[in-house]
Amino acid sequence: MKKIILILATILAISASADAKWWIFGKSNDEVGLKYLQINKIPVDETGAKIKLFKETLGPDGTLKLNGKASVGKSAVGSIRISLDDKATWQDLKFADNGTFEYQFKPETGKTYVMYLEVTDTAGKTNKVEETRKELTLSEENIQAKVRETLDALFAAYDSENLSAFMAGVGENFAGDKAILERAVKRDFDALSNITMRYAINNVAAGSQGRVFVSITYNRMVFVNKSGASSQDTGITEFVFDSKEGKLALYSMKQPLVFGLSDASNVATGEVAGNTASNLVLDETGDIGGGMQTVTHTCSGTFPSYRFSTGEKSCGPGLDVWFYDWTSGIGYSSPTQSKGFSKSLYYLTSAEVKDLAGYAAAGSIAVVTGNAYCFHLNAEFYCVEPVSMPSATDETVTFKVKKF
């Protein structure tokens, strides 16, 4: 009997500890809560009870934007309400069928907004509203310059493959283990060269323990040493910095990673909510996955052909796709299906590519350089963008390729 009581007590203790962030992630498939919540692209699940936002990072109209996604298990969302004045008043929010919602307002500097969110499903079940409480304040402090200075130093050190300079910007309490990050970045440098990255700050917020939360959009181009191909990607990612004695030091990063790609599972602490982009990942052998690669292939007197799954090059029909000279077209085998887009591969989204409407199995497609052409093959999606096509005198093709 004592053993049974002890087991029950243990289960209850575990359940209690699991409650801490249930409103963000949901305890089970039947719970009513929030899958995620962002304030001006800053996730609130790690910021603590109080969040300081900065006037300089708001939009031109001074608007603060909240967006999130409700979770109601097998039911449907009935209503979502927000209070910014400690429950004195409530406002209904518009939401999509999948539970996503958005809300905007113009905060006043120095004023504290006590926020609660209430989600109710169609059966009348409601989330634990008290656990959504956040105190929001707007500051005129200039934090963006300090963040930019810190990010500039990290990006410059990484681009120049200067390991010691990069690690100087990492805090001693780095959440993913500083030694693991150092090893991962070194392996990045072994696998990649000609690293070029650019970024733009989306937003900055301060939370508990003096930590600063940063969202950026980045563009990256690298040369993969093993394959001899260039690769590029773009995405939105998040950093957390420790603030000590007026200086910022890297505390944590989320996927998609811009640093430490070769050991993402041990370096990253979570993933950016709603990320659907195909981002670069390095494996232990130095091979790269995701992202966009540039391929050049030359044949003599026949068609250059290419296999998506392996990157194999051949001459003449027989692989997944081949590039004709006289017709400026791409041939492909049955049961492959293709779909063309009148824009660059760089601007394609995963949702556009995976929309099966418009795919056809004709066997060949006329192409225009600079446009993207996608192929549905063995339940996978691959897209190419011809940069230059073969000619009667030069059987060389150059194209960008990306798996979605």
What's the helix and strand layout?
Elements lengths: L1 H17 L3 H4 L7 E7 L2 E2 L6 E5 L9 E8 L5 E7 L7 E2 L7 E6 L6 E10 L12 E6 L4 H16 L3 H5 L10 H14 E15 L5 E13 L4 E16 L2 E7 L10 H4 L13 E2 L5 E2 L2 E7 L5 E3 L6 E3 L5 E3 L5 E4 L4 E5 L8 H4 L10 E3 L5 E6 L2 E9 L7 E8 L1
Parallel strand pairs: 3-9
Antiparallel strand pairs: 1-2, 1-4, 3-10, 4-7, 5-6, 5-8, 8-9, 10-11, 11-12, 12-13, 12-16, 14-15, 16-25, 17-18, 17-19, 19-20, 20-22, 21-23, 23-24, 24-25
In total, how many beta strands? 25
CATH topology of the largest domain: Nuclear Transport Factor 2, Chain: A
State the helix count.
7
CATH class of the largest domain: Alpha Beta
- Rg computed from alpha carbons, rounded to a whole number of angstroms: 25 Å
Name the shape in a single word: globular
Low-confidence parts, pLDDT < 50 over ≥5 residues?
A: 1-29
Which percent range fits the helix content?
Answer: 10-25%
Strand content: 35-45%
Separation, N- and C-terminal Cα atoms: 56 Å
Largest sheet: 14 strands, mixed
Question: pLDDT average, as an integer?
Answer: 85
Named CATH architecture of the largest domain: Roll
Number of domains: 3
**Secondary structure category:** alpha+beta
